[in-house]
Specification:
Layout lengths: L3 H23 L1 H36 L6 H10 L5 H11 L3 H12 L23 E3 L6 E3 H7 L26 H13 L3 H13 L8 H13 L3 H13 L7 H13 L3 H13 L3 H13 L3 H13 L5 H18 L2 H9 L7
Antiparallel strand pairs: 1-2
Helix pairs in contact: 2-3, 3-5, 4-5, 6-16, 7-8, 8-9, 9-10, 10-11, 11-12, 12-13, 13-14, 13-15, 14-15
Length: 353
């Protein structure tokens, strides 16, 4: 049996609960906005803390070494979130460094040797720089050299394999038998945010190849997505778009910036283009620096030839020309193999130097 007091307390509690529920329903919008604002403020505070720590690191780098010597430049550049001209310029302005300091930081990053190239995961030799010397597998997104790709279609005696159809050495899925099948696989790789697939598809749209229509706007869109994911060749592609004005307003300054981003990450053709730009401006020494780095990376189609021309015209020394030949020979020693030679001899599309 309930007494009057307990019944009154029960009713009061029920009324309070109902009141709270009604309040929440009537003010749900206000509550959601408050939660959203709280989340935004929390994110902004976190970004401010990260930015403040970055500034402290840069100040520490500046204090720990003499201004503008190699150690200081290396430390400051290493603290930058990405190696590009806006970041370098901002760093100099932040610390009140003179204009020559900005140029020094720029050149420290620009003329630094690019990261080493990857090896073929099958034969374990360095992958060739030339595009025709390597193959991208649209089934699994891995690369192999032309020699290993050619070998997968041929027996030891050189006879082509008909049955069974060769399988990818990485994922063991049968290789595509038609262009349409290969394109469908490539599109799926793009949907899965594969930067290499995006960059390759951008090239196909640029050139109107392999069943894709010629579309510079689509190519630029794909390269921009690939560049956001860190793909080196995409930076070069964007640079070409702005240099030639393909579907956008021509902008040589922006093109040079993208070439530099690509070159610093190891794109030898972008490096060669920078050498050509510097030579046109009359900066022969800077052009030579770019050409030598490109030759060391295996790009002889223009850089080695241009160094030879500079030597013949007296604009480059004999030592510089000799060094370029030695660098290119070292590159050849790293990539040459009998298997790759057999592939190149069988079909020019497998040429790798």
């Amino acid at each position: 049996m309930h007494d009057k007091t307990s019944i009154y307390q029960t009713c009061t509690a029920s009324q309070s609960t109902i009141g709270i529920s009604v309040y929440l329903v009537n003010n749900i919008g206000t509550i959601l906005v408050a939660l959203l604002l709280f989340s935004v403020v929390a994110v902004m505070v976190r970004l401010a803390i990260v930015k403040r720590q970055r500034v402290r690191d840069l100040k520490s780098a500046k204090k720990e070494a003499v201004l503008f010597n190699g150690d200081t430049l290396s430390r400051i550049v290493s603290f930058l979130p990405s190696i590009d001209l806006p970041s370098l310029a901002l760093t100099c302005k932040r610390f009140g460094l003179p204009e020559e300091g900005e140029l020094s930081l720029h050149d420290e990053a620009l003329f630094r040797q690019p990261p080493p190239k990857e090896d073929c995961q099958i034969c374990e030799l360095r992958l060739p720089t030339l595009v025709s010397g390597r193959f991208y597998m649209t089934c699994c997104g891995k690369d192999m050299c032309g020699g290993c790709f050619y070998a997968s279609f041929h027996e030891n005696q050189g006879n082509e394999v008909d049955n069974p159809w060769p399988k990818c050495p990485f994922c063991r899925i049968p290789m595509p038998t038609t262009e349409e099948e290969n394109n469908e696989r490539l599109k799926k790789r793009v949907e899965n945010n594969d930067a290499v697939a995006m960059s390759n598809l951008g090239c196909y749209y640029r050139d109107g190849q392999y069943g894709f229509p010629q579309d510079n706007t689509k190519a630029l869109e794909l390269w921009q997505r690939a560049a956001e994911l860190g793909h080196v060749g995409a930076y070069f592609g964007i640079g070409c778009v702005y240099y030639d004005g393909r579907g956008v307003d021509e902008d040589k300054k922006k093109a040079k910036n993208y070439y530099e981003l690509a070159a610093m990450r190891g794109d030898s053709i972008a490096r060669h283009n920078l050498g050509f730009i510097e030579y046109q401006r009359g900066n022969t020494n800077r052009a030579l620096k770019h050409y030598l780095i490109a030759v060391k990376d295996g790009y002889d189609d223009g850089s080695l030839t241009n160094i030879k021309r500079l030597y013949k015209s007296g604009q480059a020394t004999k030592d510089e020309y000799t060094k370029s030949l030695q660098l290119y020979q070292t590159y050849l020693d790293e990539i040459k193999s009998d298997q790759r030679d057999q592939a190149a001899a069988a079909n020019d599309k497998h040429r790798y130097y």
